[in-house]
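Predicting holo structure, xanthosine-5'-monophosphate bound.
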Amino acid sequence: MTHAHQRLLIIDFGSQVTQLIARRLRELKVYCEIHPFNRVDDAFLKDFAPRAVIFSGGPASVFAEGAPMPPAAVFDLGVPILGICYGQQVMMHCLGGKVERGHGTAEFGRAYVTPADERLPLLDGWFAEGREQVWMSHGDHVSKLAPGFEVYGTSPNAPFAITADPARRFYAVQFHPEVHHTPKGAKLYENFVRLAGFTGDWTMGAYREDAIEKIRAQVGTKRVICALSGGVDSSVAAILIHEAIGAQLTCVFVDHGLLRLNEAEEVVSMFREHYNLPLIHADESALFLGALEGVSDPETKRKTIGRLFIETFEKHAKEIGGAEFLAQGTLYPDVIESVSVSGGPSVTIKSHHNVGGLPEKMGMKLVEPLRELFKDEVRALGRELGLPERFIRRHPFPGPGLAIRCPGEITREKLDILRRADAVYIDQIRRHGLYDSIWQAFAAILPVKTVGVMGDGRTYDYACALRAVTSVDGMTADYYPFTHDFLSETATRIINEVQGVNRVFYDVTSKPPGTIEME
Ligand code: XMP
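Done. Tokens:
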């Protein structure tokens, strides 16, 4: 098979940081995919046609029964291979070297590697100061090299920290060059892809062209429908598809009455006026808010919103005569299959709202033009497509919207107060130039009223909670350390400008044990 880009294959042995390898490579404009070791066989390798292969780290031991192994054919491809940590051990194991159990020689954390021999293209410009800091995390270690391999770098507890068989272009390191704590790790990847002949052909401009071709080939003359949420992912997907097939695309923006101040108007006018995108603005707020009346249980709220969303989307889809395809802004991290080491399903913390149930229910096929991208690449593509910077950098906003920022029963009055408090809070954050340093910030309205005093009078109003967190992927988070001045100025503004609030709290819970949203 011929592929549009030069491709690198990452065989995943279950390391926690495998995705970081992909990040480092994408930064070098190299297209790569991560696949679990047990899905990579000879036929797969042939079809994938990698120009180089990387073996990730992993928690297993090559001594364990059924230890994860790469397919033997990978060593006959004639392409460079880089093994990392477990990847190194498995490479030695497969090629005739020896690995020993780490009795007392385990090495975790920072270590320094010194050169044994610097004449290796992989190490070009690497040992600038005679030694390099790296991040180690291993129990077992290599004790005898496979034939053809030499040592190029050592650390106190890893005599085989950097090894290679230059003739076959096989490289294996005991440390993790993909993590932050290996400061020059990116240089190692750069050297590796350069010696493998990658020219850095993975650019957003090229991606855009390819994606458009692929969408046209998939869709033909059929119609596509897209649930536009106003978030970056669905917006970029919609604009890209519109560029590919024009009026064959219809977008439906379901306004559930749980959006932020002026949000619906902003989103709708941007897509209609700036992009001339066929867009149905479905104002269903009465339906959603009616169904949510009296509901205070978080899961019931989420399920009600999810169900109504699907029903209204379906209704509008029917009105325009249906469509054969549904567009979704699925990203690469959602598609990467995880290597299950411990097994077992994880517990449901919250039922997430998405349009996942739709394709089967409506018999539609999916168009997912962002399936190969990470979030920051979607942002780069958004810029390439001319989306305004302010829009691209917007904090994530959950599908159930303000419903989950209004714990307890939702009323129009509370929503209105919440919208205004949130707008003041975000305005404060922007004024202080903090918006881009924060992963997500929002106000919530608590289901309690408290007593206060304003002027000479007693007040009995709602308490408002402010949340701001830093995070990389939303899976874990820490609260943002605003200054006291910022917090008191913001609290004063909210109480002065938003009638109905007389007390402001700042949430200092991290995730875990908290979650980012209140419900
Ligand atoms: P939690 O509250 O689970 O949120 O810590 C993690 C991230 O996910 C967002 N979130 C959602 N996004 N549909 C979405 O599209 C949902 O139902 C949903 N619930 C939470 C949340 O805003 C945060 O960024």
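DSSP finds 15 helices and 20 strands in the chain.
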